[in-house]
């Protein structure tokens, strides 16, 4: 299975980079992993709704340019479905069974995803209604993908 994470924003914190590296290394046993970091647009402190929409659209165009036609796209979206780790593992496994073995997870910037990216998504997933820094969220996503593969293989994992 091929897993691609397309994420807006560069990782700056060393400890988050180390966590990403660790989960990336662990995942090599289960899948081919590609992480694409995209430059985020700077958002002024007092940005208007129009400015925020323009920023999301610009980031969205960049995201869409990295999505290949054969990718099954899972957008990380607050309006998406909440799943348990076991349900997430089943969903990923079912994607593979249905011939969708090239999965792209999309993590937007601080303003979220553009409507064009949401429309392109095959599935919308929400980890939590809480807000997380997108850099930290990338670690959380990798951990859950790793956990999903462990569950699919019947290997031990913490419940």
TrEMBL record:
Gene3D superfamilies: 3.40.1280.10. Keywords: Cytoplasm, Methyltransferase, rRNA processing, S-adenosyl-L-methionine, Transferase. One of its GO terms (molecular function) is rRNA (pseudouridine-N3-)-methyltransferase activity. Its EC number is 2.1.1.177. GO terms for cellular component: cytoplasm. PANTHER family: METHYLTRANSFERASE, RIBOSOMAL RNA LARGE SUBUNIT METHYLTRANSFERASE H. Homodimer. Specifically methylates the pseudouridine at position 1915 (m3Psi1915) in 23S rRNA. Belongs to the RNA methyltransferase RlmH family. This is Ribosomal RNA large subunit methyltransferase H. The lineage of its organism: Bacteria, Bacillati, Bacillota, Clostridia, Eubacteriales.
């Amino acid at each position: 299975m091929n897993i691609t994470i397309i994420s807006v924003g560069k990782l700056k914190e060393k400890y988050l980079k180390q966590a990403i590296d660790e989960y990336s290394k662990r995942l090599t046993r289960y899948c081919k992993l590609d992480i694409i970091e995209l430059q985020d647009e700077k958002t002024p402190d007092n940005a208007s709704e129009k400015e925020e929409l323009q920023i999301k659209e610009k980031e969205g165009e960049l995201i869409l340019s990295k999505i290949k036609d054969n990718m099954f796209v899972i957008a990380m979206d607050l309006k998406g479905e909440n799943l348990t780790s076991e349900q997430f593992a089943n969903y990923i496994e079912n994607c593979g069974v249905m011939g969708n073995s090239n999965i792209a997870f999309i993590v937007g910037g601080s303003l979220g995803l553009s409507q064009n990216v949401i429309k392109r998504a095959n599935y919308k997933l929400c980890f939590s209604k809480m807000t997380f820094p997108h850099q930290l969220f990338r670690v959380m996503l990798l951990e859950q993908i790793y956990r999903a593969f462990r569950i699919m293989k019947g290997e031990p994992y913490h419940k």
